Amino acid sequence: MKAKTWGLGATLAASASLLLLPGARGQAGAKAELRLIPETRVEKLAGVWVDGQYVGYVDQFKGHNTIALPPGKHSLVIRENGMKDMTRELDLAPGGEQDLMVKLDEPEEDAAPASGSGELKILVAPDSAAVFVDGHFEGPVVQFGGIARTLRLPPGKHEVKIVLAGYQDYVTSVEIAANARQTIEWRLEPVASKN
Fold first, then answer.
1. For residue 189, pLDDT beyond 60
2. Which pLDDT score is estimated for 106?
3. What is the pLDDT of residues 127-161, one digit of tens each?
4. Which end of the chain offers a freer environment for a tag, N or C, measured as fewer CB atoms within 10 Å?
């Protein structure tokens, strides 16, 4: 099986589209590759940020899949709603590969939804995009769009922002009613290339 390499700058065709970081496609062998290994199911859908840019979720970068980065220092943040962020400063060698075990610490507080909350189903493509509600990261779209998969929210008005590098952000407001379900359907538009 051929390995897939994901990165940050040009859109790649595969199960998810991510961008190549500037310099990641420089000289032959000059890029560095980062592979993420989730310790438990909790980490699989945790969001991944490299140098402040959301690139996808952990499960996309395991096994034969890697994140292609230019050699040098990078800041990595792994985030899952209700868990403590995992942050690492990496120094990647040219042509090197690095495996990183991802283990998130226990929840900071009880993350159980309040009774009387409503549900938000999110059907957005690409489903690797990050979902933010009222400025807080909730998880990737894939976590809230399948059968029996929704985001539970307290009743009231909420701002929903969906972002993915290489695509225009989608921002909307939703009014969540107690014990009701609402759906967002959208296709993110690629950012026009500057060629």
1. yes
2. 81
3. 999 999 999 999 999 999 877 788 999 999 999 99
4. C
Q: Which residue has the tokens 């993110």?
A: 188
DSSP SS3 for 160: strand
Q: What is the mean pLDDT of the chain?
A: 82
**DSSP helix, strand, coil percent of the chain (3-state; round to 5):** 5, 45, 45
Do 4-102 and 118-187 agree at the fold level? yes
Between CA 65 and CA 87 the distance in angstroms is 21
C-alpha 49/C-alpha 46 separation (Å) is 10
pTM, 2 dp: 0.70
**Residue in 48, 68, 67, 69 with CA at minimum distance from that of residue 57:** 48
CATH class of the region 118-187: mainly beta
Single-letter amino acid code for the residue at 95: G
Residue 169, C-beta contacts closer than 8 angstroms, at least 6 positions apart: 161, 162, 163
Architecture of the domain spanning 4-102: Sandwich (2.60)
